[in-house]
Amino acid sequence: MVTDQTRRSLLKAALFGATAPILPLGCAAANEHRKAALIGCALTSRNQFSVVVASEDGAPIHQLPLPSRGHGIAVHPSRSHAVAFARRPGDYLMIFDYQTGQIERVILAKNNRYYYGHGVYSNDGLLLYVTEGERRSSRGIIGIYDAEKNYQKVAELTGFGIGPHEIIIMPDNSLVVGVGGVHTHGRKAINLATMEPSLSYLSAAGELLEQVHLPDRHLSIRHLAHDGNNTVLCGQQYRGNSEEAPALLAMHTQGGELEPLIAEPEQWSRFNQYIASIAASEQWILATSPRGNCYGIWSKQSKKLVELASLPDASGVVFQNQRFNISSGAGQTISVTKPKDIHSFSHGVRWDNHWSSIG
After folding, report:
1. What is the rounded CA–CA span in Å between residue 317 and residue 324?
2. Model pTM?
3. Is 111 in a helix, a strand, or coil?
4. At 28, which CATH number?
5. pLDDT (tens digit per residue) in 4-25
6. Number of domains the chain contains
C-alpha cells in the first residue's frame, strides 16, 4: 500500500520539481496582457500534466503543474481562486489563484477515499462542494470545505447513491449530482448488472429533494450543466452492449421527467457511447465527445440535433459572451455563435477533459 508520507513526497516532487512547459515561455509571456477567461486541465507531455489559465480564444496566460492527470475545475464566484480536481480515482485537489498563478493549497484524499474529479462553489463562494467516494464501496459523498477557513473540511453529505461524478449548483442554491451508479475498483466497473444511476437534487443541508432515473439503467449519468435558469442537462456514458447507440443527453426540470434529446442512431453512434462536456444557452445545447472526436448542437426548443461536427479529441465547452468555446486535445479551440458559424484558433495547448468559465 502507498503510505500517506509516500503520497505526500510524490505530490511535492510533482508540484515543485522541474516540468516541461506546454509552450515556449516567450509565448506565455506575450499573452500575459490578455484577460483570463477560461481554465482547464491539459497534457504537458507524456506523464506530465498542468492546469492552464487562458484567454477567451484559448491563448495560455498561466500554467501550473499538476501531480497527476486533472479533470474538472471549480471557479470561485467572486475571488480569484479556482480548484483543479484529480481525475477519478483522484487523490488530490489543488487550490490556486488564477490571476497570479500562485498555488494556494493542495489537499490529499484520505486513504479510504478518493475524488471523482468535480466540485462546485456555493453561490456566495463560502463553501466548496466536492464529489468523493469510499474506496471499498464507491459510496457517494459530497465533501464540504470552508473556503473562508483555508478549505478545511466541515461536513459531508451522503445517502444519494454510489459513484457520483459531476455536481452543479442551481440559482436557488440546491445541488444537482450526476450519480453514475457504478461501483469501481480503480477505474474498473464491477457492478454493471446492478448499477443504479440517477440525477439527484440535494438541499444545501443534504436533504434529498428529488431523484430521477432514465429507463435504461446502463446509461451512467455523469456530466451536467444548467441553462442559467431551471433546466438541467445531463450527459451519459453507456455501459451496456458495445454495439448499441442510445441517446446520451437528456433535459430535466424539477418535478418532471428526464427527456432524452433527439438524434438518429447513426448520429448517436458518432459519440462512441460517451458525452464529456455540456453547455447551454437560451436556444442551443452543445455537447462534446473526446471518444467520438466530435461535438453536437441541439435545439433547446425542438430537442433535435441540428449540427454534428468533427473535432479531434473534443473536450471542454463553455458558453460565455453569447458564444460557445470548445477545446480540443489536439491543440485547437473552436468558437461557435450558432450552428455553422465557426471560428478556429490554435495555441498549441493539448486541452484535457473540461473547461470552466471565469466570470
Report:
1. 7
2. 0.92
3. coil
4. 2.130.10.10
5. 544 554 455 445 543 333 344 3
6. 1
